Structure prediction request, 416 residues.
Amino acid sequence: MKIKGKLLIVDPGSRFIRMGVLEFHSDGAPELIFMKAYPSGGLNNGTVSSRKELADALRQAYESVRGESGSEQFGEIWVGHSGQHIRSDNATEESKIRHNVPVTARLEKQMLARAEMHIPSDYQLLHSFQQFSSLDGVRMRSAVGLVGTNLLSRYHLVFSRKAVINNIRAVFKDAGMAFARFVFNGYAAALSVCQSEEMNLGCLVIHLGQSTIDYVVFQEGQPFMTGSINDGWHRVIKDVAMGVHISIDNAEKVMVSSGNAHDIDAEQDGPLNVTTLFGDPSRLTRRQLAMIMSSSIEEVFAQVRDQLKNSICRGHLPGGVYLTGGGALTRGITYAATGIFGVQTRVEYPLLPWSNREFDPGWAPIIGMVREASEKASPVKPSDGVLTKIVDGTRELKKRMFPNPPPGDPEGEPEK
Prediction:
């Protein structure tokens, strides 16, 4: 896979449309030259709720990113994908090999093609990963060039409902954008925060989006189970609004300023200046707010736990749980997750593959797609001696685009 020119990366969400532009230079070196978030609409739980509204939002964002980045044409467009319509499965294929004939790459491709036929007819394949091969009972990454009699390979398949994909494709066409591929947001987010050692050890990555929550379990370096639930961070905000009888906007503001996903001590308790929908002053305290938030957040995490099954969560996650997405910035979120999954949990900030610059967790899918494109589409490796130029370009991008970004500003590059 090789991409020429510039790659436009799009993460369409229910609240923001995040875009990034990755340029591949003549020597193959990748450089992130632009990244910004734009208002979104017409998308809910990863599905189109208003074709016109979403198309208008995408069109405005597309025109803005072309003008602001100075990029009229893009070699390819990648789109992040999320929602409960995404499924995954592990498929095993077996093949008998003739005596003293080595395994070929062509045979492995044929076995992968047979495995991909296991997905339902009304779904479309997004990703396929070879978890391992086994030649005469000996497990390995690849058996190409080896001699044996029985080859067995297991693959992890990620797929999405065709109807949902066709609707999104039609909206992008209305906006004048023809994209090349879908990338599952949960997988992209995991790439932005996980290293190979953590994936080999076994870990769970949860991306806490506004209207969806994506997750990926890694075993032996490859995805073992992936999925998404339609209970994003808006569910927590709504629970607070209903419990306190305040508006959605006020609920989000009080959560950001005084919220906590973990029960607080009595010494930290105190009244909050909140007005109800009826115009009366609320008697809400910090501790009561924490109780509502912790209860709602634990219910959300419990849905993920139930889909993964307790045996996987507690026995096969020695690497722990990693949280990304805008919801990961909630105070006390790691305590709530640790109580549900029973393993160490921490919030991770996405990193570019060529820099130690940390981004806001909400940008994890974009940074993950940058990593995917950089590693698979570019022949440049760290040893090639060209990364100094890329790091300098990234620093210049920060100075040029985000001179003084306020914390949490979706139109800038949020600080940690």
Summary: The chain is about 35% helix and 25% strand. Residues 86-159 form a domain with the Dna Ligase; domain 1 fold (CATH 3.30.1490.110).
